[in-house]
Design goal:
Blueprint: E1 7-13, H1 17-28, E2 33-36, H2 45-48, H3 69-74, H4 84-97, E3 104-105, E4 110-116, E5 119-124, E6 129-137, E7 159-162, E8 177-181, H5 185-197, E9 200-205, E10 211-213, H6 221-229, H7 231-240, H8 259-272, H9 288-305, H10 309-315, E11 328-330, H11 333-336, E12 342-346, E13 352-355, E14 359-362, E15 365-368, E16 371-374, H12 383-386, E17 390-391, H13 398-401, E18 420-422, H14 435-455, E19 461-463, H15 465-480, H16 510-522, E20 528-530
Parallel strand pairs: 1-2, 1-6, 2-3, 4-17, 6-18, 7-16, 8-9, 8-16, 9-12, 10-11
Antiparallel strand pairs: 4-5, 5-6, 13-14, 14-15, 19-20
Helix pairs in contact: 1-14, 14-16
Bound molecules: 3-acetylpyridine adenine dinucleotide.
Length: about 525
């Protein structure tokens, strides 16, 4: 629909929650704009991750747009933690309600983006060529799937499925021998569901994760009404809290709390379910001794839930502080291992050697499988961006510029890449906050900058290198005040072989992050070169 003769004001890449909101705002502000999306529908993450058991780990009423009060009032979430189909319906409903579909080209992946002669030339896998003065990427933090470098992929004769690209049509698992590699949030959610159908389920675990029960349940009408009534408070919380939504902590340090009181507080949150438990005490994210209090509490819960002592031992997370990998939220994960047809393979003790024609070979022997499910995560934060084939000023490739790790200003823009903005990009709070809140903040901030550029007839807006350097230093300093850097995780890029180890998220909280961005805007976009 668009071509090089028709220069868009703004091209948006991606039609998940970020892309849809961006597109909608740009249209409301009467920019000429269009979005490009690889999938054949909207929803991003929630389009692709349709594996059985896929649910949000943020409560539904908080994992929803706030910028649209009418939508907030009229949409009725059915469960405390919405499942993927409902979240996808919500995204579709939003796109419909705002008339966005005609402004999105689906089934089209951007494969090249070059800044040439003052504008961006995009190329796609369908042969489309698009010229746009500005580009906004809305490609998600977790969308470039990671395939582990296990020898023998070509040999395996069974079915390989990925949680991150689960087929839309039903998958027949009844009577089949199923294996799952990966025990992060996706693996921990999919395992109990696969166990309901599979004849045999083998879970290949490299690192035992900390997981808390969701205690998911239908929302009562009273709770839904209360969420509507809470709207103004939610908007306030989005601006003033670390995660972008309220969490119920004690406000006390674990190390200064009496053990009996600690247990009461933790028990209450464990019984309530969900991730709030990590914020029970103020010191567990930065003090190893305090962290051990919380970690031990979780370890005890594993032993309570898993009957076989050896399996319980293998499922008990050790060797890294709780919270330094994303806390998982489960629905019967541990109990699944009490079922007679489910078994755990602890890859620390019994590593995978290769795939064979009929299954997975570990040091200890062969595991015959009909279906192998990969829940092995993502080239997080940067992967979706580096795969866009971006080249900035003077033909500099983003892959080269980021060879030693991502560099950005505010996580939103990069020196050398004018007129390009990265929603929830590396260097912003990303998954360390409620992503919907981070998205809304970014979209509105970028929209205001684009309006500013139009009003001032700016043709180029580009982050300045010294400010980018300063941002990198600030990110490193914030991370060093936490326990995150102590653990190999995707936060650091450690899950991808050869990837530079840089702690990518802004660890200072969404509230602090927003204040910085607001100050930048108020100071005439300090740190940006404009022309
Ligand atoms: O991916 P992960 P995910 N051999 O990277 C293992 C969001 N999300 O898709 O820890 C064997 O967390 C790897 O092992 P190890 C959420 O932000 C949210 O589960 O590296 N195993 C790990 O166990 C989440 O954090 C929701 O040792 C290998 C697993 O694969 C993020 O997405 C639901 C391996 C990958 O875990 C990513 O979660 C789902 C190998 N070679 C996702 N390579 C909710 O909202 C990797 N692994 C609830």
């Amino acid at each position: 629909m668009c071509n090089l003769d028709a220069v868009l004001d703004i091209a948006v890449i991606g039609a998940g929650f970020a892309g849809l909101h961006m597109l909608d705002q740009l249209r409301r502000y009467e920019f000429s704009c269009h979005a490009y999306e690889s999938a054949i529908g909207v929803g991003g993450t929630w389009f692709w991750n349709r594996y059985p058991g896929a649910r949000c780990d943020v409560e539904s009423v908080d994992y929803a747009y706030l910028h649209d009060p009418e939508l907030h009032e009229t949409w009725q979430w059915s469960e405390r933690f919405a499942a993927q189909p409902e979240i996808l319906r919500y995204a579709e409903h939003f796109a419909d309600r705002r008339g966005l579909l005609p402004h999105i080209t689906f089934g089209t992946t951007v494969t090249g983006a070059a800044f040439e002669d003052g504008a961006w030339n995009l190329t796609t896998d369908t042969g489309e060529r698009v010229r746009a003065r500005f580009v906004v990427t809305a490609v998600g933090c977790m969308s470039a799937a990671h395939t582990p470098p296990i020898p023998g992929w070509e040999r395996f004769g069974g079915t390989v499925l990925r949680t991150s690209r689960w087929p839309a049509e039903p998958v027949e698992l009844a009577g089949r021998r199923v294996g799952v590699i990966g025990t992060g949030s996706s693996g921990i959610q999919v395992v109990p569901e696969l166990a309901k159908e599979a004849a045999e389920l083998v879970v290949f675990q490299r690192t035992a994760n900390f997981s808390v029960p969701a205690r998911n349940r239908p929302l009562t009408q009273q709770e839904r009404n209360a969420a509507v009534a809470r709207y103004e408070q939610q908007v306030h919380d989005a601006r003033t809290t670390r995660f972008g939504h309220a969490v119920i902590g004690t406000g006390k340090a674990a190390l200064e709390t009496d053990p009996a009181e600690r247990a009461v507080e933790l028990d209450a949150r464990w019984a309530r379910g969900g991730t709030h438990i990590v914020a029970t005490f103020t010191d567990t994210g930065r003090d190893l001794r305090a962290n051990a209090v919380l970690a031990d509490y979780f370890r005890d819960r594993v032993r309570e839930q898993v009957h076989d002592p050896a399996t319980a031992r293998a499922l008990t997370p050790t060797g890294y502080p709780i919270g330094t990998k994303r806390l998982c939220v489960d629905d019967g994960y541990y109990e699944t291992f009490n079922l007679p047809h489910v078994r755990l393979v602890d890859l620390r003790a019994d590593p995978i050697q290769e795939l064979t024609r009929t299954g997975v070979r570990t040091i200890g022997g062969d595991h015959e499988l009909d279906v192998l499910v990969l829940a092995t995560g993502f080239d997080a934060f940067t992967g979706a961006l580096t795969r866009l084939g971006i080249t900035g000023r003077d033909g500099r490739a983003l892959t080269e510029v980021w060879r030693d790790g991502p560099r950005s200003y505010l996580g939103l823009a990069m020196a050398g890449f004018p007129n390009l903005f990265t929603l929830t990009g590396p260097g912003s709070t990303m998954v360390l906050s409620n992503v919907l809140r981070a998205i809304e903040h970014h979209v509105e901030w970028v929209r205001d900058l684009l309006v500013h550029a139009r009003e001032h007839e700016l043709t180029e807006v580009e982050a300045l290198e010294p400010f980018q350097d300063e941002w990198a230093a600030r990110l490193a300093e914030l991370a060093s005040g936490t326990l995150y850097p102590r653990t190999d995780s995707y936060y650091l890029g450690a899950n991808i072989e050869g990837k530079a180890r840089v702690f990518a998220p802004f660890a200072g909280g969404l509230d602090a992050y927003r204040r910085i961005c607001d100050a930048v805007a108020a100071e005439d976009y300090r740190g940006f070169r404009t022309a």
